[in-house]
């Protein structure tokens, strides 16, 4: 029988010693009771919470779980390297192997630099774009998430206008909006940022029009600025190359994180020769950026990405999840909007402006052993099987039935509404 007594006790303790009880996207504000917050195990496709409940996990740690938690080949690489050295006075030779591996795989890349989080990589992209010609203005799509540093964090707390003084916002997928933003930058355009597709929290996902992507490339070239693709979220879930290779547009810089080490802390900025000197001129570092264990994990992850059909398998599983869930919803009288690439599903209910259906549905699935998100895109991983999807559908069928019965009494989350408006 599902219970959350330990999770609740941990939340109470956390509220005493962690500001707000939790921070960032793990915040209890967006994860009300019924959504466990604390986990003790992760293995393959499953996570186990502090109360001992196990879930098929469609969040994949918000992306890093690409191949399955505790993937045996990656774990073996980690153990081998741990026995030798991890954080040391200098990097291990693995840093060169890893840079070579990425340059060999990612078409636009002639070099690589490594860091820890996606925010490090996107910030290095911003600095490199500015160092390139000493220009200041950077174009970012409205609502796009590029990390949690003062220039990019989505919430206003602790941020001053000067932190974003040289950012210009444009509408994703709109070549005219992009051209207008470029015009506004005048002769001070340093770079244009784009995510591989529009994957803003709370919203339907939108794939990029090739025309928009080509316009971004052309405008960057015309103004001697750098084009940046932020592949931190979508990396290796759309392509074994930079995600915009799928539409034939090659950036100067790409930011990577999450999947690189299948859960080990490592991220990267990749760039072409045009951007090499600028990248060499920025001073960036961190005490743990050169640790060897995550690099060993990344090398093995990249080998699996190159050598196996992990991507095609995830696409089949993602498509199965999409079509089966959508069909199941119809049977219970609900219409779902299931948008974006099949490997990064975003599932929203039609006619659910305050997310009351979505939250109640996910909470009901949770109690039956399936971890879904009501407001954020989810992630397929390569360890998922048709049997996992069949088990998922048993839980979601019962969840649809439950919310159908309770439909008239469901309540919106006031906190969520306030956050969406903020
Ligand atoms: C597109 C994108 N860029 C950057 C980031 C920031 O990555 P991190 O949380 O590892 O700093 C994220 C994280 O979700 C992301 O989705």
UniProtKB/TrEMBL annotation:
<keyword id="KW-0663">Pyridoxal phosphate</keyword>
<dbReference type="InterPro" id="IPR005814">
    <property type="entry name" value="Aminotrans_3"/>
</dbReference>
<dbReference type="InterPro" id="IPR015422">
    <property type="entry name" value="PyrdxlP-dep_Trfase_small"/>
</dbReference>
<dbReference type="GO" id="GO:0008483">
    <property type="term" value="F:transaminase activity"/>
</dbReference>
<dbReference type="InterPro" id="IPR049704">
    <property type="entry name" value="Aminotrans_3_PPA_site"/>
</dbReference>
<dbReference type="Pfam" id="PF00202">
    <property type="entry name" value="Aminotran_3"/>
</dbReference>
<protein>
    <submittedName>
        <fullName>Glutamate-1-semialdehyde 2,1-aminomutase</fullName>
    </submittedName>
</protein>
<comment type="similarity">
    <text>Belongs to the class-III pyridoxal-phosphate-dependent aminotransferase family.</text>
</comment>
<dbReference type="InterPro" id="IPR015421">
    <property type="entry name" value="PyrdxlP-dep_Trfase_major"/>
</dbReference>
<dbReference type="InterPro" id="IPR015424">
    <property type="entry name" value="PyrdxlP-dep_Trfase"/>
</dbReference>
<dbReference type="GO" id="GO:0030170">
    <property type="term" value="F:pyridoxal phosphate binding"/>
</dbReference>
